[in-house]
Amino acid sequence: MPPFKTRSLFMAPMVDLSHVAYRELVRSFGGCDVFYSEMLNARIVPGENTRTSIYLRWTRVDDLVLQLVGGDPEKMHLAARRLDGFRPFSVDVNMGCWLKKVTCHGWGVALMEDPDRARRVLSAVREAVSTLVSVKMRIGCSPDPEAMCDFASMLEDAGADFIVLHARTAADGLSRKARWEYIARLKERLRVPVVGNGGVTRAEDALEMFSSTGCDGVMVGRQAVIQPWIFRDIKALMEGSQPEPPPPLEDVILDLHRLLLEHFGEDVALKRFKTGVVWLSQNLTFGHHLTTLVGRQKTMEGAASVVRDAFLKGIS
Predict the structure, then answer these.
(1) How far apart are alpha carbons 273 and 292 in whole angstroms?
(2) Residue 46: which residues within 8 A CB-CB, separation 6 or more?
(3) Distance between CA atoms of 244 and 220, rounded to whole angstroms?
(4) Pair type for strands 8-11 and 217-220
(5) Per the count of CB atoms within 10 A, which of 159, 220, 279, 286 is most buried?
(6) Which residues of the chain have pLDDT under 50?
(7) Is 97 part of the annotated catalytic residue set?
(8) pLDDT tens figures, 81-114
(9) Of the candidates 3, 30, 4, 35, which has an alpha carbon nearest to the alpha carbon of residue 216?
(10) Which among 97, 104, 141, 215 is annotated as catalytic?
């Protein structure tokens, strides 16, 4: 079983974003210790073909958390056993996704409303897995610190090796300011490591989260896809150095383009490139225009040409 190293940095699981190409882009800058997969459907994983799946793809697994979403203990057990065979850093149970397409099945954060089923799900995963087992959760469906701590303590007793807390409620979605005081509260309560998530938009924020909450790790989500070099910058600050200047964004965008073509077919690559450009373009004054131009393209070659032309002309 791999050890959990304190003061680790994590890249969050994100639908259509924490795929192998984006993970490799982030990895190229250094600094990130642990990566998450996109959430994997427990109903599909047991029979999923690794040769054709767009989700079961990676270049290494020793620093990769494979995240399962589901609510049936038996199905979660079978899926977790399959994932354990790949020898990842951890198998994670998603108890934090707030999207209706997930919660309508009783999955994600909906499990926090049914502690007994959540316990049975986690116990089933724990029985199937020889590596670390983790849970990514939220504060809950309401800002109740005692209920949150009781739920997390139950997860700890059921076999969770570490817990990631996205410091927002289900109703907050991604919009409300993250409530870091809940991370501190959970850290005080649990024996297992706690990873804080939510509200890191600058490298300095990660250091502030460590110092203000006492958490054992910091997870970065959306800012990691806007600035894939943010982990490099956080590590520099942690080591008492000043971060390097941001890399040329044209190179970053075209590196994502190259990595997508290495790992996916044209159709999937193009769809995911367009999604990636939406986020990376937030660093540009002409980002909206670039996103529009790339969005109109029918081929990856055309998309790359548009990017090169936009930077050449310096559209503003």
Answers:
(1) 13
(2) 75, 78, 79, 82
(3) 19
(4) parallel
(5) 220
(6) 316
(7) yes
(8) 999 999 999 999 999 999 999 999 999 999 999 9
(9) 4
(10) 97
